[in-house]
Design brief:
The protein is of the alpha/beta class. Helix content is 36%, strand content 25%. The chain contains 9 helices and 10 strands. Strand 1 and strand 2 form a beta hairpin. Helix 6 (179-196) runs parallel beside helix 7. The radius of gyration is 18 Å and the shape is globular. The structure holds adenosine-5'-diphosphate and magnesium ion. Magnesium ion binds at residues 49-50.
Length: 254
């Protein structure tokens, strides 16, 4: 195993700036995402966490900066080069992003049918494996409305994993879940990361989730328009010289 995080980076972000009109959300942000780890983006409401995730996945175009995936530049990429990068991604949308009129099995089969020439039998086998990997093996014929919120998120993860992504993106995965379902989802994220080695990028502001899943974190701040703390979870927690970081980890309202 390499210990040098620089040589092990799956994503390198350099001098990234995002503006909406006149408004700068963050400026000159640089960081590396280590391969195979759970990387958490945290910070208070409105500091740009979702915007950063949307920029990483190509839904927001930055004003400047570079994002490279395994050395391939994403910003400004087109055609096959862009498609090759997008194929590495799996995204868990809020509330799972499932089609309401389709069973769980049909929802998970859809991206496989669209991206491959596999026959229905092979696709069913893959769907069964994906459902089993999130603990929903006996729910293949259920509609999203027939299962709980936590199960919807898990089904959303199964769908995000349908094409074996190298990187899974989650925006506040436990939003709207009760504490027990939320903890179960954290365990699942951790287990899948360990079992498959998939790099996970998770936006959250829930301290319990951060403790349960984070290998490395960056903390964004609205007034700083950028990163105010970074490192392993224990490094960032020990970074108490910064009052904003201390307050976040000690649940102190400003
Ligand atoms: N598409 C957009 N157009 C204009 N402003 C936006 C857009 N998306 C987000 N914002 C603004 O950018 C800021 C950061 O939003 P967001 O990334 O959603 O924060 P967070 O996820 O950390 O709560 C907010 O003030 C939000 O209103
Ligand atoms: Mg958000």
């Amino acid at each position: 195993m390499h210990t040098n995080t620089i040589s092990d980076a799956i994503i390198r972000v350099r001098d990234l700036t995002v503006r909406f009109g006149e408004r700068t959300i963050f400026e000159n942000v640089s960081f590396d995402v280590p391969r195979g780890k759970v990387f958490v983006i945290l910070g208070g409401s409105g500091c740009g966490k979702s915007t950063l995730l949307r920029t990483l996945t190509g839904l927001v175009t930055p004003a400047q900066g570079s994002i490279s995936y395994d050395e391939a530049e994403f910003i400004g990429s087109v055609h096959e080069a862009r498609r090759a990068i997008l194929r590495k991604f799996g995204i868990l949308f809020q509330s799972g992003g499932l089609f309401a009129s389709m069973t769980l099995a049909e929802n998970i089969a859809l991206p496989i049918q669209e991206a491959t020439n596999l026959n229905e039998e092979r696709i069913s086998e893959i769907v069964a494996i994906k459902l089993a990997s999130v603990g929903l093996q006996s729910f293949d014929a259920f509609l999203p409305a027939e299962i709980s919120g936590g199960m919807k998120k898990r089904a959303g993860i199964a769908r995000a994993m349908a094409l074996d992504p190298e990187i899974l993106f989650f925006d506040e995965p436990s939003a709207g879940l009760d504490p027990i379902s939320s903890a179960a989802l954290d365990n699942l994220i951790r287990e899948l990361n360990k079992a498959l080695g998939t790099t996970m990028i998770v936006v959250t502001h829930e301290l319990q989730s951060i403790d349960a899943i984070a290998d490395e974190v960056i903390m964004l701040d609205k007034s700083a328009r950028g990163i105010i703390a970074r490192g392993t979870l224990s490094e960032v927690k020990a970074h108490t010289e910064d009052k904003r970081v201390y307050n976040f980890f000690h649940r102190i309202a400003e």
